[in-house]
Design goal:
By secondary structure, the protein is of the alpha/beta class. It has two domains: 301 residues, Thiamin diphosphate (ThDP)-binding fold, Pyr/PP domains (Rossmann fold), CATH 3.40.50; 33 residues. The protein is 44% helix and 8% strand. The chain has 13 helices and seven strands. A five-stranded parallel β-sheet has the order 1-2-3-7-6, with helices on both faces. The chain has a two-stranded antiparallel ribbon with strand order 4-5. Helix 4 packs parallel to helix 12 and helix 5 runs parallel beside helix 6. The longest helix has 26 residues. It is globular and about 75 Å long. The N and C termini lie far apart (75 Å). The protein binds thiamine diphosphate. It catalyses: N(6)-[(R)-lipoyl]-L-lysyl-[protein] + 3-methyl-2-oxobutanoate + H(+) = N(6)-[(R)-S(8)-2-methylpropanoyldihydrolipoyl]-L-lysyl-[protein] + CO2.
């Protein structure tokens, strides 16, 4: 009689390509990245980093109501985006705007969404950072944890039924793997053999809840295996490792018709959102260590520099032009008019039901009575 152990016998290894100094480990195998792709990856990582700094400050100045940074997770965002194709559906959590950036969503489009102005595709009806784009096959962000995961499996299954040469790629945090939706999604994906790539950003924290040591050593990869989903653990701060793993995952997902799970080990360097102060529950030294010595952007820069593709002059030029572009986009988005009040009541029903018409009428009456309490840049 032999019971199967409840935990894996050995610690799951972590796939790495670049060491902390941006040099490939001897004999490491990885997918080749051309100079052009590597430069775009670096450009986009710097753009994402700069956008986070400036948008975060804009929230602190009271210009936007909310923001959430991706700091520390730039490699997961950009390298995974680089390894997939534009036809692949992206079903995000909320800490992956870099994938949308990679696909060509402009700074102006990001800024319009955060200000909820009339150029925002969501017509100002979503909270800031709930980006979405039909054009870029990027499903609209929903902050309700893990609800995107079953959707991604359904989308992947539809792609398979239609015999499309594409997969669905979905992202989530380590906290999300404790939700029922995560388990339903993994089970459903394995049973239907859906071409979906699950990318878990194991960033050590779910708001103020630390990920336990047990989970750090035995995390989402083990849950993947439990559902019969092929899985790998990767260094999330190593852009080359992420690129290679996602590239291989895509080939298996589409070629063999199966789900794949990637657990990327990383660290959430920023506060959870602008509503959080993470120094209240974690040591500042820990944050600093990750922000400096483990920065994925610097690590990748060292690699492109050692290939002779980058230098200090291009670096300063890039940083200053990206900064200007982002500041300009913010100013434009701030100046733009908001969507009209009537937009609040459209796009759900073909013909508006009586209760919605009553609510609209009541809102208009209230605004008439208390005009001083309503923003002057929202057309009535
Ligand atoms: C269903 C649900 N429960 C709780 C919350 C509140 N909440 C927002 S973010 C978050 C933590 C998520 O952590 P994780 O999935 O690890 O992602 P991270 O923020 O670390 O990137 C929680 C509990 C929510 N948004 N949705």
């Amino acid at each position: 009689m032999r019971f199967i152990s409840e935990s894996s016998e050995e610690r799951i290894p972590c796939y790495r390509v670049l060491d902390d100094d941006g040099q490939p480990f001897p004999d490491s195998s990885f997918v080749k990245v051309s100079e052009g792709v590597a430069i775009k990856m670096y450009n986009d990582m710097v753009t994402l980093q700069t956008m986070d700094t400036i948008f975060y400050e804009a929230q602190r100045q009271g210009r936007i109501s909310f923001y959430l940074t991706t700091s520390g997770e730039e490699a997961i965002n950009i390298a995974s985006a680089a390894a997939i194709k534009n036809d692949d559906f992206v079903v995000p959590q909320y800490r992956e705007p870099g994938v949308l950036l990679w696909r060509g969503f402009s700074m102006q489009e990001f800024a319009n969404q955060c200000f909820g102005n009339k150029a925002d595709y969501g017509k100002g009806r979503q909270m800031p950072i709930h980006y979405g784009s039909n054009k870029h096959n990027y499903f609209t962000v929903s902050s309700t944890i893990a609800t995107q995961l079953p959707h991604a499996v359904g989308a992947a299954y539809a792609l398979k039924m239609d015999r499309k040469d594409a997969c669905a790629v979905t992202y989530f945090g380590d906290g999300g793997t404790s939700e029922g939706d995560f388990h339903a999604a993994l089970n459903f994906s394995a049973v239907t053999e859906a071409p979906v790539i699950f990318i878990c950003r194991n960033n050590g924290w779910a708001i103020s809840t630390p990920i336990s040591d047990q989970f750090r050593s035995d995390g989402a990869v083990v849950k993947g295996r439990a559902y019969g989903v092929r899985s790998i653990r990767v260094d999330g701060n190593d852009a080359l490792a992420i690129y290679s793993a996602v590239h291989a995952a895509r080939e298996m997902a589409i070629g063999e018709g199966r789900p794949i799970l990637i657990e990327a080990l990383t660290y959430r360097v920023g506060h959870h959102t602008t509503s959080d102060d993470s120094t209240k529950y974690r040591p500042v030294d820990e944050i600093e260590w990750w922000r400096t010595t483990q920065d994925p952007v610097t690590r990748f820069r060292k690699w492109i520099e050692s290939n002779g593709w980058w230098n200090g002059d291009i670096e300063s030029e890039l940083r200053s032009s990206v900064r200007k572009q982002i500041l300009h986009a913010l100013q434009e988005a701030e100046k733009a008019e908001k969507p009209p009040i009537s937009d609040l009541f459209t796009d759900v029903y073909d013909v508006s039901p009586s209760n919605l018409r009553e609510q609209e009428h009541s809102l208009r009456e209230t605004i008439k009575k208390h005009p001083q309490d309503y923003p002057s840049n929202v057309p009535i």
